[in-house]
Each structure stands twice: as structure tokens, then as C-alpha cells.
């Protein structure tokens, strides 16, 4: 998530945190409580919620959130790129659904991740412990990449639907307001508490 394809774009993490904070602001103004998954014991509400929540963001771990500590029938909002293996995403959402917790998944992506716009010989650096990959001719793998990405997207939609979660995708080269509005409309009237986590 701590990546962008060019300097004019925000990092995916930055966009996810902006949307999380903006949604938390809307939710607390509506009188609800907010809590960051993975930060035990911290529930935010009222006028001071946004500042204290933003201060707590660095304490959240990247990755899929734990299902522990969430109250029954809460609404979770998960922000991330969701490029993890599908079996890991399925395990996470299945665990949340068993609590039961439902909610929304927002896949935050850099536009380069959708189109693989590179040409020639490119070295891709592993950002999360995986080895670097040197591709001699990126154009030769573009179709396979597109197929793999489409399969990931289809798998995510299926997993979310089975777990009772809504699914949406947001590109960091698009205005955040549209994603925020879509999340707010999807959640309107359905939440007792809102929970956010960068995944």
C-alpha cells in the first residue's frame, strides 16, 4: 500500500487513510462510534474522534484485520489493495462473517496496477518481502497480467458477496469524493458502529 507509480499521485496508503478519516468524520457526526480494527480498547466518538483516530492510525498494522474484538452485528469497512492471495481474503471475511460482522470492502489501486503501462525491460521490486522480478519484455506478459488481475477481481467480488460484504474499487487518480459518497450511501442506515482497517 505504501506505493505510487508516479509522484503526482498519492500513495495507496495515503488515499486509504484519507477515505477512512473522512468516513469516520461522517459517521461520528451522525452520532455513531468508530474503532480501528487491531487497536484494542480504542473507541472514538463525538467531536474529538477524528483527531484521536488519525493519531491512532500509525498503530494499525497493514494486512487483513483480525476478527477478534469486534462486537456482533457491527459494520466493518476494509480499505486496502486486496492483492493478497484469495484464500487469505476468504479466510478473513469468513471469520468476520461468523462474528457476525458485515460491511464494505474498498479496493484502493494505483492506475498502473490496472493497466501495467510499462514497456521494455523492467525490474519490479518486491515491497513486502517477496523477491524482485526482472521482466525482459513487459509487453509480452501484459495479457497474462490482465487475466490474472481479472481473476483476482472476480474472486474478490465472489468472496465479498458470500460473506455479506459490499465491494467497490477506487483508483488513486480519481477524486476521493466519489468513493466516499459511494461508501456513505452503501452504509447509510445499516450501521450501529463503523470499524475501519487498512488491509
Description:
This protein has 199 residues and is of the alpha/beta class. It has one domain (12-198). Helices cover 39% and strands 19% of the residues. A 5-stranded parallel sheet has the order 1-7-2-3-6, sandwiched between helices. A two-stranded antiparallel sheet has the order 4-5. Strand 4 and strand 5 (133-135) form a beta hairpin. Helix 1 runs antiparallel to helix 2 (49-56), helix 1 crosses helix 6 and helix 3 packs parallel to helix 5. Residues 189-199 have low confidence and may be disordered.
Q: Give the SSE string.
A: HEHEHEHEEHEHE
Number of helical elements: 6
Number of domains: 1
| Strands in their spatial order, largest beta sheet | 1-7-2-3-6
Name the structural class.
alpha/beta
Per DSSP E runs of 2 or more residues, the count of β-strands stands at: 7
The residue-averaged pLDDT reads 86
Shape, principal axes of CA atoms: globular
> Radius of gyration, rounded?
17 Å
Instruction: Profile the largest sheet.
Output: 5 strands, parallel
* Beta-strand content estimate: 15-25%
Low-confidence region ranges? 189-199
Summarize the structure.
With 199 residues, the protein is α/β, with parallel strands linked by helices. The chain has 6 helices and 7 strands, in the order αβαβαβαββαβαβ. β2, α3 (86-98) and β3 form a beta-alpha-beta unit.
